[in-house]
Amino acid sequence: MLIDSHAHLDNERFNEDQTQVIARCEEKLTAVINVGYDLVSSGRSVKLADSYPFIYAAVGIHPHDAKEAPEKYLEQLRKMAEHPKVVAIGEIGLDYYYDLSPRDIQKKVFREQLQLAKELNKPFIIHDRDAHGDIMQILREEAPYPAGGVMHCFSASWEIAQECMKLGLYISLAGPVTFANAGKLKDIAEIVPLDRLLVETDCPYLTPVPHRGKRNEPAYVQYVVDHVARLKNMDAQELAQRAAENTIRLFGLPIKPMADG
Ligand code: NI
Q1: Exposed / middle / buried, residue 158 (Cβ in 10 Å: 0-12, 13-18, 19+)
Q2: Which residue of 10, 64, 86, 139 has the smallest Cβ count within 10 Å?
């Protein structure tokens, strides 16, 4: 089993060949979670999930787009989340690297969507770039999280990883763990417990080695798996299986964990 827990197949970089890319996913992957970043892309995610049995959707407003969120965006997300294949609220969070939305608006929209996820009893998908302090503060204030969540493309310290896991969150690793300059991320990959680990591509971004620099796609999650398995000194197939089981558990996917062995 192999699942890409975070993809953006509705991104314009797939406009030309989306059908072929999805065909390659279907060949290699058990499931893909397609994650929205604003209301329009959330709607496109739901449509993809509606069209392909193995694709599931998350709906949410990314911190980059927080300043564009219309007044009634929560109502619209709530409505989209009624679709049976919407499995999470995401991606939500804070991005102080690009600062594309004012920080007070980022924080407000992040907190409101965390509360929405709790109200709907759904897990959430967190984007945290250079905002670890405020992310953790808001997560502490809004806890507990009975439906859980995931720190997507984890980039913080082992101390923060441990606190996230205590809050019931999963740690998701993406292409950067394969980069030569990954440093402490490789150490975290080595020690993160197997029952707390997800893998993802975040495609079309963050392409893993050996395709770094080209467009990413869900099938490349295999490179992330291979790399993390080497760091953990374990069998890649087993790691893929364990990460897939975690993804199924977190998002409540209607897939039998041992379906294809
Ligand atoms: Ni993403």
Answers
A1: middle
A2: 64
